[in-house]
């Protein structure tokens, strides 16, 4: 136990020295202003159209969605999604709360919602994918393993360092998007009420559990869910980097899986066993916002269970393989 | 070396703190989603009601309510009579603004009644100075069995689904009447059964009339109750089946009966106007109806909007 902490420290220093984390920060610093600008244009346009009256805008959105319900060409799943959406908008309207009150906090909330299933996992991968395979590519793994330290400790220290950076990444996504969008929308808005607790059953929304939470609390809950997703993605990417020799291959494998996930969530409604795949279950924040799950039968406990099983399997496989395998080059 | 030590300390401290915070958030979120505590919404919600900007003097604020005609189905440019009216009013430098178009395909009088109970619609109504209403066509022409479906529940005349086929076949007599109504060959209709030709008898057309007319009265009453100041323009019906020989006379009778019933109601309110459209389309159906043989096309909507502009001015 005594020599674990120096090992973890060593791994952290390596991650920092490799400057991966700075790359992530740089990506955020470039992309978030772009999203902010896009959002600003949307806000401006709707201000022009609806004379800055959000109630009219929401009502028009409700009407537009109701109209699309009557089209025969729209698939039934989309219709039920829209019916749910209409009921939620109606709820906001009835309680005189603007769901999109422009503020830096609201932007952050929506940004996190949109990035949970692809963007943040990609950032995580940037750190996780070369933790082990990178050492093999450069050959430094031999140096590491010739030390009088047991292999599982080496791997464990890498995993611990990875999890530390997962938290840092989630935190920095939040901080950067808040700071940058605040420039455009203002830094207030932590106390704006957000409704959560929409219970979906088929087409209808059970409103009995709906309650308002201040936005800061909502962000905290969102952060927690995103953290869980990120940990599972990190563990899987870690496993791949143990299994695959080259970093490029390990990144490609994970990217393919994640992108397949976004494609599947858009079209997998008919293939219900797809819900056991981890990449379909990444959108945990949807349960908070009350958006219908991509495949029927998915609930938060279900998604958590699926993700946990995948995460645990990744840990077991990583350790089993890493401690047994011969390192040849 | 000292620098490295400092980095390690801050990284480890921040990451451990962040992890703990996120775990707290996670536990909280799971608890909240699995077991949501509904609360009686009290008045504690902040009233962020931005006071609506007072209307500039002379500015017309238009709100459209009703069925697919209000929405503009059949107009290839998507404008419908609502946008065209707006354009007509602003063309000579007049000030007009569209608050919203709440037209919904397939809406019936019963559906509009439900819709008028919605807070958002009432809010928009209170802001409006001109309300354009188009309703009743679906009650009259599409059988009373649809009424139970509520708002937009059934497939509308499917303006979005206009098939070029209906156009290409040209002569209406060649097309099966059921197909004409849906705007596409009936073989392709896979959704819920729709009223077919058999139900479009004079009796069926007139059967729906008394109830629907009563609801129209209630609707106009409600609108006047919500915003007594607003000018209401009700768009009268035309007979879309004038080019089908068997339906010309009964259709005309039913539409005339409906329009005169509407006129009776509207005449009792001082700030309501019926904008007739029957004469605009009669005998000109091929020119002013879109390819679904039910909704007006762009030119048809243009003619309606010219009437409305004249009525508003």
Automatic annotation (TrEMBL), chain A:
Organism lineage string: Bacteria, Bacillati, Bacillota, Bacilli, Bacillales
Domain of life the protein comes from: Bacteria
Name of the protein in question: ABC-2 type transport system permease protein
GO terms under cellular component: plasma membrane
Keyword Membrane: yes
Segments traversing the membrane: 21-40, 116-134, 155-180, 225-244, 251-278, 298-322
Keyword Acetylation found: no
A Pfam family of this chain: ABC2_membrane_2
UniProt keywords, alphabetically: Membrane, Transmembrane, Transmembrane helix
Example of a GO MF term: ABC-type transporter activity
TrEMBL record, chain B:
Tree of life domain: Bacteria
SGNH hydrolase-type esterase domain: residues covered: 64-303
InterPro entries per the UniProt record, alphabetical: Ester_Hydrolysis_Enzymes, SGNH_hydro, SGNH_hydro_sf
SUPFAM superfamilies: SGNH hydrolase
Gene3D superfamilies (UniProt xref): SGNH hydrolase
Organism taxonomic ancestry: Bacteria, Bacillati, Bacillota, Bacilli, Bacillales
Region of interest: Disordered: 153-198
Record-level Gene Ontology MF annotations: phosphatidylcholine lysophospholipase activity
Protein name: Lysophospholipase L1
The organism of origin for this protein: Paenibacillus typhae
């Amino acid at each position: 136990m005594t020599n674990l902490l120096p090992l973890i420290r060593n791994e952290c220093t390596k991650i920092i020295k490799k400057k991966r984390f700075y790359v992530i920060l740089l990506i955020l610093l470039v992309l978030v202003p772009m999203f902010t600008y896009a959002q600003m244009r949307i806000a401006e346009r709707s201000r022009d159209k609806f004379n800055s009256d959000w109630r009219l805008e929401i009502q028009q959105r409700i009407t537009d969605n109701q109209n699309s319900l009557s089209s025969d060409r729209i698939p039934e799943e989309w219709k039920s999604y829209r019916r749910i959406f209409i009921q939620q908008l109606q709820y906001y309207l009835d309680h005189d709360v603007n769901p999109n009150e422009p503020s830096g906090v609201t932007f952050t909330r929506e940004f996190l919602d949109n990035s949970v299933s692809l963007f943040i996992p990609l950032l995580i991968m940037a750190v996780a994918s070369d933790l082990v395979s990178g050492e093999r590519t450069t050959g430094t793994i031999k140096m590491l393993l010739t030390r009088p330290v047991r292999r599982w400790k080496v791997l464990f220290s890498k995993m611990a360092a990875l999890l530390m950076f997962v938290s840092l990444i989630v935190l920095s996504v939040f901080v950067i998007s808040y700071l940058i969008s605040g420039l455009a929308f203002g830094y207030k808005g932590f106390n704006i009420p957000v409704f959560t607790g929409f219970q979906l059953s088929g087409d209808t929304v059970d409103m009995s559990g709906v309650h308002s939470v201040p936005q800061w609390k909502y962000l905290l809950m969102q952060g927690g869910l995103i953290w869980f997703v990120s940990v599972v993605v990190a563990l899987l990417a870690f496993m791949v980097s143990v299994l695959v020799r080259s970093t490029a291959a390990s990144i490609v494998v994970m990217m393919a899986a994640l992108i397949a996930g976004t494609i599947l969530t858009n079209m997998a409604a008919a293939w219900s066993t797809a819900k056991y795949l981890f990449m379909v279950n990444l959108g945990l924040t949807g349960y908070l916002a009350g958006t219908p799950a991509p495949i029927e039968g998915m609930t938060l406990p279900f998604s958590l269970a699926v993700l946990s099983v995948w995460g645990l399997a990744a840990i077991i496989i990583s350790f089993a393989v890493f401690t047994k395998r011969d390192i040849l080059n | 070396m000292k620098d490295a030590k400092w980095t390690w300390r801050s990284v480890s401290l921040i990451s451990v703190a962040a992890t703990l915070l996120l775990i707290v958030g996670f536990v909280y979120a799971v608890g909240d989603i699995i077991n949501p505590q509904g609360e009686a919404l009290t008045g504690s919600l902040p009233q962020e009601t931005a006071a609506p900007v007072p209307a500039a003097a002379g500015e017309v604020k238009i709100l459209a309510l009703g069925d697919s005609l209000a929405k503009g189905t059949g107009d290839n440019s998507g404008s419908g009579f609502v946008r065209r009216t707006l354009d007509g009013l602003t063309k000579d430098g007049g000030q007009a603004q569209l608050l919203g178009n709440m037209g919904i395909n397939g809406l019936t009088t019963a559906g509009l009644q439900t819709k008028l109970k919605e807070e958002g619609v009432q809010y928009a109504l209170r802001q409006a100075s001109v309300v354009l209403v188009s309703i009743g066509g679906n009650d009259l022409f599409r059988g009373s069995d649809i009424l139970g479906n509520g708002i937009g529940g059934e497939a509308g005349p499917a303006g979005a689904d206009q098939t070029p086929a209906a156009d290409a076949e040209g002569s209406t007599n060649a097309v099966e009447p059921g197909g004409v109504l849906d705007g596409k060959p009936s073989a392709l209709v896979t959704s819920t059964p729709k009223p077919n030709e058999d139900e479009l008898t004079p009796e069926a057309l007139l059967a729906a009339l008394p109830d629907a007319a009563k609801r129209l009265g209630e609707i106009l009453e409600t609108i006047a109750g919500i915003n007594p100041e607003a000018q209401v323009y009700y768009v009268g019906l035309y007979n879309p089946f004038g080019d089908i020989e068997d339906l010309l006379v009964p259709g005309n009778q039913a539409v005339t009966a409906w329009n005169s019933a509407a006129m009776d109601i509207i005449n009792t309110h001082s700030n309501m106007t019926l904008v007739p459209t029957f004469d605009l389309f009669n005998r000109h159906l091929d020119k002013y109806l879109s390819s679904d043989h039910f909704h007006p096309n762009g030119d048809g909507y243009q003619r309606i909007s010219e009437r409305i502009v004249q009525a508003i001015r």
